[in-house]
Amino acid sequence: MPNILVIHGPNLNMLGKRNQNFYGSRSLEDINNIIERKANEIDFNVDIYQFSSEGDIITKLNEAFNEYDGVIINAGAYTHYSIAIRDAIEILKIPVIEVHLSNIYNRDEFRKKSVISPVCKGQISGFGYVSYLLALEAIKYLLQED
């Protein structure tokens, strides 16, 4: 069974309390439960983490090198400026899918730029929690191609 790492970045622990127009009404725990159900359905093992610290995200990405078959990352605000997270993703030789709950391209100007996208296999944004489920399906497809 493929092992998939899911990383939620800063402030995603506040889902359900944040602007629901952008982030929906589900809590992070709700979303994690949905991710786990989908992973089980498609025969994936999934480990899910939420970090507010950039360093913790980088450490977990570094650990992913030999432990995981794919990564789904919602780097939150770090998406727009963390070259360190970008570099940690670039090292990986496995599919990495960038995910966002909201459509970052119809929001504030500063949110339209992702420094991690160029080193990810793809990006899924704007579908709320379903973005994570689509990312799981994408990784399933990519792993079947190899």
Automatic annotation (TrEMBL):
Domain of life of the source: Bacteria
Q: Which residues bind substrate?
A: 74, 80, 87, 101-102, 111
Q: Where is the active site?
A: 23 (proton acceptor), 100 (proton donor)
EC numbers:
4.2.1.10
Catalytic activity reported? 3-dehydroquinate = 3-dehydroshikimate + H2O
Mind telling me which Gene3D superfamilies this protein's record contains? Dehydroquinase, class II (3.40.50.9100)
| One GO molecular-function entry | 3-dehydroquinate dehydratase activity
Its GO biological process terms? amino acid biosynthetic process; aromatic amino acid family biosynthetic process; chorismate biosynthetic process; quinate catabolic process
Q: Where is this site: Transition state stabilizer?
A: 18
Does the keyword Lyase belong to this entry? Answer: yes
Sorted alphabetically, the keyword list is: Amino-acid biosynthesis, Aromatic amino acid biosynthesis, Lyase
Instruction: State which pathway it belongs to.
Output: Metabolic intermediate biosynthesis; chorismate biosynthesis; chorismate from D-erythrose 4-phosphate and phosphoenolpyruvate: step 3/7
* Group of enzyme by EC: lyase
**CDD domains associated with the record:** DHQase_II (cd00466)
Q: Name one Pfam family in it.
A: DHquinase_II
Q: Sorted alphabetically, which NCBIfam families does this protein's record hold?
A: aroQ, PRK05395.1-2, PRK05395.1-3, PRK05395.1-4
**Membership in a protein family:** Belongs to the type-II 3-dehydroquinase family.
Record protein name field: 3-dehydroquinate dehydratase
Q: Which organism is it from?
A: Caldisalinibacter kiritimatiensis
